[in-house]
Amino acid sequence: MNGNGERGGEAFSPSSFGALAANPEKWALFLDIDGTLVDIAPTPDAVEAPAGLAASLAVVMTGLGGALALVTGRGIGFVDRLFHPHCFPLAGLHGAELRLPGGRTIAIEPSPAFLQAKAALHAGAASLPGVIVEDKGVAVAVHYRLAPHHRDSVEALMREAAVRAGPRWSLQSGKMLVELKPAAADKGEALKSFMRGAPFAGRQPLAVGDDLTDEDMFAAAIAHGGRAIRIGDGNARTLAAGRIGTPAHMRTLLASLADTWERDRR
Ligand SMILES: O=P(O)(O)OC[C@H]1O[C@H](O[C@H]2O[C@H](CO)[C@@H](O)[C@H](O)[C@H]2O)[C@H](O)[C@@H](O)[C@@H]1O
């Protein structure tokens, strides 16, 4: 539900990004990756960053005085390969890994119980054809996009894994996947960590995401006096008051913001 108690939120007009262009010193931008910046693909490794996206992000980050962070379920290594050669401030694994401006990195370590749970998951998923285990180190995602009929089995497997891993790990559902991740990590806490330090502190956060896991980030952005935008068709229940239809539209808005600032610099 959005701030007005409605589903979905209002369509976000392209000109609203003008608020960032007009007052860049007032805003901080927090961006999810899968389903927000890049299109959803059949498998986790099949995603691609379209030409120009990383460069647009870099220009927008500079325009905002550095106040841009990516907030994602992906790990830092994956994101750096996706946006090579850029290394953006980043909350990875839903906030279990943080790379703050200036490069300082903070990460939660896996426990022996979590490693055992992960090994059991690999073994259990091997008997479910089409199910993919994405091992991300201190988190693990099990995908059923290629085998939706295995959804119940995947959910049962994940519940068992959560019991094995113990209370420091928790389940997170997403688009055709279930993840086991550190319980202390969520995207809302990640946003708050960035907002405590320069150059984010004192700015108004604008959070953009497409999935259930982004709702924590939306709540934190709104609590900081900011705004939230959900990518998608508008049917999802969300806290976001704004909506953008597709990642392609989101990329267009970023590219035009980047163009505006590049033109001004010339
Ligand atoms: O927080 P995000 O950046 O949105 O990451 C969330 C998860 O995204 C990835 O899974 C999703 O995208 C895949 C590729 O498009 C798709 O195949 C899958 O069905 C989606 O759920 C990623 O693989 C996960 O690790 C992220 O947690």
UniProtKB/TrEMBL annotation:
Cofactors required: Mg(2+)
Enzyme Commission (EC) number: 3.1.3.12
Keywords: Hydrolase, Magnesium, Metal-binding
Protein name: Trehalose 6-phosphate phosphatase
Recorded GO MF terms: trehalose-phosphatase activity
InterPro entries linked to this entry: HAD-like_sf, HAD-SF_hydro_IIB, HAD_sf, OTSB-like, Trehalose_PPase
Reactions it catalyzes: alpha,alpha-trehalose 6-phosphate + H2O = alpha,alpha-trehalose + phosphate
